[in-house]
Amino acid sequence: MLKHIPSTPGKFKMEKSPYIHNKSRWHWHSSIMKLTFWSFIFLGLIFIFFFRSPSSNPIPQDPSRRSLRTHNWGGPAWEKRVRSSARIRSRNGISVLVTGAAGFVGTHVSTALKRRGDGVLGLDNFNDYYDPSLKRARQALLDRTGVFVVEGDINDSTLLRKLFEVVPFTHVMHLAAQAGVRYAMENPSSYVHSNIAGLVSLLEACKSANPQPAIVWASSSSVYGLNSKVPFSEKDRTDQPASLYAATKKAGEEIAHTYNHIYGLSLTALRFFTVYGPWGRPDMAYFFFTRDILKGKTISIFEAANHGTVARDFTFIDDIVKGCLAALDTAEKSTGSGGKKKGPAQFRVYNLGNTSPVPVSDLVSILERLLKVDAKRNVLKLPQNGDVRFTHANISLAQRELGYKPSTDLQTGMKKFVRWYLSYYSGGNKAAG
To answer: Can you supply one Gene Ontology CC term for this chain's record (predicted)?
Structure first.
């Protein structure tokens, strides 16, 4: 009888028979065994999921840092397509990697290079800063032109290294960036990720490539910041940025100078002034003014203090493309090899503008005439969100050294944009925003 007494005092109840107690103990042992079994199964599943999964990349916690390997690349068929796109088809042609190729300027530059017989390979991550369907439409346009756009991130060093292994690019046209002045107040880390970390990632790949390519890249007129001297010259100070976007572009220029000095990379920075035209960016004023005027919505027009004029040096995309190609054609070879500098390398900075600032209110008047619709205007004070009162380019250096000469006035350029806009959004299968 003593063997049925539990080891813990106070738990034994005399009314229970030995048979019932044995049955209860059997059930208890059975439950423990089942619990142990399923615990091992559960732990095994955790081990397999976290440690043996073929996709072990963690989900990024910061929404601005998109996954770098969300798209498949590599393999013989992929490499064949990359080589074909980058193949030079004209005498004295160049082979160019264009980052941000599905962007506004990237699409136009890639098309122009391809049409004159240069080898062109695009790279773009197709992020959703603005409507990705517009980027996909540009990609389709490039595909018809013979330009393959690799889907990937400039921060993916493995992908960049692979691209330079497959193709010995002579030049890089670096246009990938997080654009927009106001968006920086919502998502500042995206600017650091793309405009600083992304630039460093690209320069690291270029410095290690053999041969090293010559690099032309997009800076911005925003680096002039709070300067009051006009027109803006490349010799002017650029240490007073008015926005985080401007600060990242200024940082990019300093980083580029460092890589030029240490590694012998040939680098040319182009400061774009308010680029507009067909296939443009929906976050630009001329674009959403057009959309809202057609929809009968009120548009906000900013003015400076004391009813001061807000003006921009609007530059048509075709003129920007000419400047980009001229910068590529006049770029000297990098002087490094295997990441080591062998001599001084070219370093240049140019303004690419139109030299004719136009008040934003005049832009609206031009759109009214072209659209044959009166705009509902709401005049507001210029907010302290990074916007500056005016931009005005001094392009004498680009004229002298690149042969740069803009030829499209705002009336002519906007007429071409409106024609494209009405054609693109008239099908009914594309939303205008």
So the answer is: Golgi cisterna membrane
Burial classification of residue 48, based on how many CB atoms lie within 10 Å of its CB (0-12 exposed, 13-18 middle, 19 or more buried)? exposed
208: buried, middle or exposed (CB in 10 Å: 19+, 13-18, 0-12)?
middle
The class (CATH top level) of 177-274+315-353+391-407 is: alpha beta
Q: What is the pLDDT of residues 14-55, one digit of tens each?
A: 344 343 344 444 444 454 454 444 445 444 443 433 333 333
pTM, whole model, 2 decimals? 0.82
Tell me which residue of 173, 185, 254 sits closest to 215, measured CA to CA. Answer: 173
Q: Is 245 a catalytic residue?
A: yes
Whole-Å CA distances, 149 to 103, 114, 120, 136: 11, 13, 9, 10
135 contacts 126 by C-beta, under 8 angstroms = yes
Tell the burial category of 219 from Cβ atoms under 10 Å away from its Cβ (0-12, 13-18, 19+). Answer: buried
Q: Find the catalytic residue in 224, 245, 286, 350.
A: 245
